[in-house]
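Onboarding guide, step 5: your first structure request.
Type a short instruction followed by the sequence, for example:

Predict the 3D structure of this protein.
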Amino acid sequence: MKPDVPCILLVNPWIHDFAAYDYWARPLGLLYLAAMLRMHGLRVSYIDCLDRFHPRSRVVGKGAKKDGRGPYLKTPIPHPAGLENIPRTYSRYGVPPEWFLDDLSALNPPPDLVLVTTMMTYWYGGARETIAHIRRCIPDVPVVAGGIYATLCPEHASEALGADLVVSGPGEGNILEIVARFTGFSTPLKFDPENLSSFPYPALDMQNAIPFAPLMTSRGCSFSCPYCASKVLQPKRMVRPPAQVVEEIEYWNRNSGVANFAFYDDALLMDAENHAHVIFEEIARRGLKVRFHTPNALHIREISQKTAGLMRRAGVETIRLGLETAAFGTENRLDRKVTEEQFYLAVGNLLAAGFEREKIGAYLLTGLPDQDIDSVKESIRVVKKAGITPVPAHYTPIPRTRLWKKAVEASRYDLESDPIFTNNAIFPCRSEGFSWRELTELKTLAQEDAGNHI
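The system replies with structure tokens like these:
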């Protein structure tokens, strides 16, 4: 390789929060960018500040699940300004700073450009600290930030992160332009940013371990739920050929021994007859001994008897349903993607297909503007009556969604002044403030007689 080919470092930053856990979470967009850069002949290195499998870690495996989930290392840190009164421990999740600095110093060759991703809007403190350490260790190297927070809050990110450039939106289309701008290295594009089938497999091999593989079979969603930013983050729906998806699954299974896969699609079952059904049928035909999980939730009304049976045959193990609420008769429901009849029919189809009750969970939004806690409790009871597990999902106000204005009006915080106040752990749209009692009540009610497997 020519010595003038630049080296690009990609970094997954720390999380700063009251709670965090590795629920099949990987920076898939960043790992795709790493693979694309390698495709174009660049030298690439990768550091994951959240790495549960860091070589210096002595807690790998402690508390971890067989399906790839597990707890992060964590260190208590001071509360952010404005959240000092929240009676919960605030922590940095991920490896200790000295490990990160040692890993940065050990890079050979040193990077010519650093790319840092961002995730939740209220996690920006972790990205800011990560960039500050990069500046301390390699002060003359330019830093570019992108990802979810950078896309939803570009002005705030430009002021808060300390990066040389903040990029909004999917990075595939302009990644080579960014490299050329900061390094002078230019090369023709070898893939089509508008065609997922032209993408290389994500660079999962750059991780210290692959306990599971994140899997993207499509991008975007045709629904426009008022609390969701999918349409903002990915305006255009794109779908991969089913055969290519199965080839990737088999590739990671055979070459890296990966047995667990997490679907990252926002709408996996959309047009299922021509997409998901074909994928599941081919997985079953090939006899692959793998397991699948759906942390992003499935659209309930798409779970027909046929779909449930195919998912079961293919090895889908952990089901999460996007229910939102079981108050089916309420006129002011946020969205109407599913009726009561469709919910019970989908659950019945899953159970009839042989899925274990404790492995089927329904997300229920809590902490919505003007939401009555009794309605949440009733929704939990309805889900449990259906024979599956309720999974409370605390609402995060997201800029540029249709519910944002209502959230701003309902919040006891000035949400527009700082994304830190959108943290779902503090129930920002609850006018009375944080309540340990109510949080405990919801957790207890959801977990009673349900097993704690989801």
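Each response can be followed by summary notes, for example: The mean pLDDT is 94.
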